[in-house]
Amino acid sequence: MISDTVGTPPSRPISPAEFRAFQACRPDHERWELVNGEPRMIVTTIIHNIITGRLVALLSSALMEQDPTRLACQHPGVELGVGGNDCPEPDMAVFDADYAPGQQFTNRCYLLAEIVSDSDEQTVPGTSERWIEVKRRLYRAHAPCEAVVVIQEDRIDVLVDVKTATGWQSERLTASDQLIILPRFGLRCSVADLYRNTPLMPRWGTGNRP
């Protein structure tokens, strides 16, 4: 039995299979991750969702030109095939465009991205790693993955990991005019393109009004 009631998450560590059964009982609008056997609900901010949407739009446009066999999707269900009792849910991913009707999960992602939430900064129970560090490590361990993007929502800071023939190479971008270039995905945009219309780069004349 996964929970005493539909509204109550399990009070004990559970397996990935039990976690998927628990997810299936939850309302469609909820997002959950399994963190070292502990179900954790994902709560996001407006800026988080704006940045995610912008990245999906930029990649969708780029992929239409570069490789229409792939698509960008916000909040996909993924089965990474790594991680033991960790089941992260990326904020967005690039995967094959030929998915099946009714398909909920993909097990082949080429790009995985996270916009860092407060919960991502929490230490994983029983470890010294932050959850965002675990997620980044698992994404890089996912064999088909070619790129990982980690975006901070409280400051201009984008970490880009790209898989090369000799291993992973990382670049941190902290200026709005720096370029994010991912040739395999046809993406060439500025850091500003991700943060536009957020409190970090508000529309002209709006200031920081609540």
Describe the structure.
This protein is α+β, with helices and mostly antiparallel strands and 210 residues long. The chain has one domain: tt1808, chain A. Helices cover 22% and strands 28% of the residues. The protein has a 6-stranded mixed β-sheet. The termini are far apart. It holds the Pfam family Uma2.
CATH names the topology as tt1808, chain A
Overall geometry? globular
Do you know the CATH architecture? Answer: Alpha-Beta Complex
Mean pLDDT: 91
Number of domains: 1
The low-confidence parts are 1-6
- Terminal-residue CA separation: 44 Å
Q: Can you tell me the CATH superfamily?
A: tt1808, chain A
Summarize the amount of helix as a percent range.
Answer: 10-25%
Number of helices: 4
Succession of helices and strands: HEEHEEEEEHEEEEEH
* Structural class by secondary-structure content: alpha+beta
| Biggest sheet details | 6 strands, mixed
Q: Numbering strands along the chain, what is their spatial order in the largest sheet?
A: 3-5-7-8-9-10
Rg from Cα:
17 Å
Total beta-strand segments = 12
- Strand-residue proportion: 25-35%
Q: Tell me the name of the CATH class.
A: Alpha Beta
InterPro entries: Nuclease_put_TT1808, Restrct_endonuc-II-like, Uma2
Domain Putative restriction endonuclease: 18-191
Protein name: Putative restriction endonuclease domain-containing protein
Organism: Microvirga vignae
Q: Descriptors for this entry?
A:
disordered N terminus, 210 residues, 12 strands, tt1808, chain A, alpha+beta, 4 helices, two-stranded antiparallel ribbon
